[in-house]
Amino acid sequence: MFSEFKKEMDLGGRxxxxxxxxxxxxxxxxxxxxxxxxxxxxxxxxAKKPRTDLDFFPxxxxxxxxTFAAGKIPGGFFKREARPTEKxxxxxxxxxxxxxxxxxxxxxxxxxxxxxxxxxxxxxxxxIVAMIGTSAALTISGIPFxxxxxxxxxxxxxxxxxxNPVLExxxxxxxxxxxxxxxxxxxxxESEANELSEEIMLGxxxxxxKANQEIINSIVDxxxxxxxxxxxxxxxxxxxxxxxxxxxxxxxxxxxxxYSISEKSARQDKISSIKATVMENFIENEDAxxxxxxxxxxxxxxxxxxxxxxxxxxxxxxxxxxxxxxxxSEVGILPRAHGSSLFTxxxxxxxxxxxxxxxxxxxxxxxxxxxxxxHFMLHYNFPPYSVGEAGRMAGPGRxxxxxxxxxxxxxRPVMPEKESFPYTIRIVSxxxxxxxxxxxxxxxxxSLSMMDAGVPLIRPVAGIAMGLIxxxxxxxxxxxxxxxxxxxxxxxxxxxxxxxxxxxxxMDIKITGLDRDLMKTALQQAKEGRLHILxxxxxxxxxxxxxxxxxxxxxxTLTVPKDKIRDVIGPGGKVIREIIDKTGVSIDINDDGxxxxxxxxxxxxxxxxxxxxxxxxxxxxxxxxxxxxKKIVDFGAFVExxxxxxxxxxxxxxxxxxIKSVSDEIQEGDEIKVKVIDVDQQGKxxxxxKEALKDAVEAAAPTAT
Length: 705
Hints:
Blueprint: E1 5-11, E2 14-20, E3 29-35, E4 38-50, E5 59-65, H1 86-99, E6 109-119, H2 126-141, E7 150-157, E8 160-163, H3 167-170, E9 175-181, E10 186-196, H4 198-226, H5 238-258, H6 264-280, H7 290-312, E11 327-331, E12 339-345, E13 348-357, E14 363-367, E15 370-374, E16 376-381, H8 398-411, E17 424-433, H9 438-452, E18 462-471, E19 474-479, H10 483-488, E20 491-497, E21 502-509, H11 516-538, E22 554-559, H12 565-569, H13 574-583, E23 586-589, E24 594-599, H14 602-616, E25 624-633, E26 636-642, E27 645-650, E28 671-679, E29 685-688, H15 689-700
Parallel strand pairs: 5-6, 16-17, 27-29
Antiparallel strand pairs: 1-2, 2-3, 3-4, 4-6, 7-8, 7-9, 9-10, 10-21, 11-12, 12-13, 13-17, 14-15, 18-19, 18-20, 20-21, 22-24, 23-24, 25-26, 25-28, 26-27, 28-29
Helix pairs in contact: 1-2, 1-8, 2-4, 4-11, 5-6, 5-7, 8-9, 13-14
């Protein structure tokens, strides 16, 4: 019934298995891939007819994690998987980026890649498994995919690179780097690092690239055994070359003039006018559809920009290849925000706001590998007005989530330990203007806004986007790329870090791959640009403010014994609610006994601290307390020395003379000073008012000279 094919290989000391022919047989390509005990089903389906109404390749990638894969039931009312999580969205992007450039340029059939996590062993992250499985599914599908690709995760521990470290090991790693590529070169890099040097980062990329070759060879072996016949790809119509010649004649001079205009809006207006004129000349030509003419026009634009750059070394805005656009950094721009900044680089601008919260503001994340709390959040927004457009406002898309996560990765390695700075921190980056690398502007703005809020970052972080133009005539690497240079170029290479090293790196290549020498040059050029940007940021704020903003909550922490946690909380939370009601503070207690008290009012916070300390303090023999008389009996009085703890003052310890009745000296409700004279084995406290009075007299007596 089944025509099954199987291929096994060793990868990082664990078995990687490809299986096809049994499950999802109606898909063009379907591979069940297993790594350890993590299983992912990867499918590829391409429509039979091309989309003639689109001038781009309609590719969709869906990565989905089923909670049953880890033996869990989804939370929420409906108890089923709903909209994609952040992890699923980011992994979908991770898969899309290296495979998209490898489809035949004439292939325009709608194509969907679905990766479903069926089992998770809580050791091997399914994202790498899904990337490899997708490559295999596409390679055997018959879809015109010029792969396969390999994908690996690289860690760095004790000066050594680790291939595909398990999740537990990753906690000790200074690096989390994902690299994907073909035999020819690297196509995609995504990483977070603890201020590592350019040399270490380059070595990690090459280490992963080498490991990818074995994966690629295994996929080729699988394809030789069971791949479907390749689909026919339509030839480029002859009419296209005729149209190109005519369009070139109509537009070339005007486009060269347009691309000499440095200001973005003026340049776009000029290009739009030229394009409209070109389109008018083909209205009566039925073979020259708007899509064909538009595509040809774009090719001519691309040729003019790329070849002009290689020939002259001069860019659209007049800069040379290494110069960074003018930068203006400002902080404290919003009066009520806890921290704020406005970072402007050329025609790209980010307004970034930092808000400090308490433990109650932490984000609870439900993942396959377990639930955890996140106290650092970064949200990136890209409104349509930032590029001069009127568009639909909706929730964050894949781009917004991806750019925000990149900035988050760049900042996280320099964050203070939660124990020393117990705040929940939310960053919001509003892109108010965009012409290239708004994600790196977000990194710079985030660093400034957090320092403005008084967050003790280890060091400021800056980011820069690099570009590449590669033609037969030569190669040019560009620092701080414009939007057009990103769109028309071959590489988007983003590098973020401090003066000491790299904290995040993201690279996407549109050509078949990038070799070691080019990557080394790009990293060095990026370092020079990053250090320049850091110098410009220093002009606004070089380090964090010594005090947090007056509008931010003050958080005081103290640790109580674990056996005293219940005393602070009280039955049904009665005690802690009473403290909150009396002081107006916010209180969080973790299982280790760490108590966080937050309030904008320092006096209220101090009062709450006193309450907690009184509830948890131990009785000290010989110490004098100010207590409250709770009950009078014939043989003495019971006095509360702090909440929940009282002791007996025997009638003989009321004063230094004999008395008939306790009420002759003290009354219920009186506040009196008492001294602890003993605590017996049962924990009963014996108090003395007489001794406390005696000590007070002795303390007041003049000292003999």
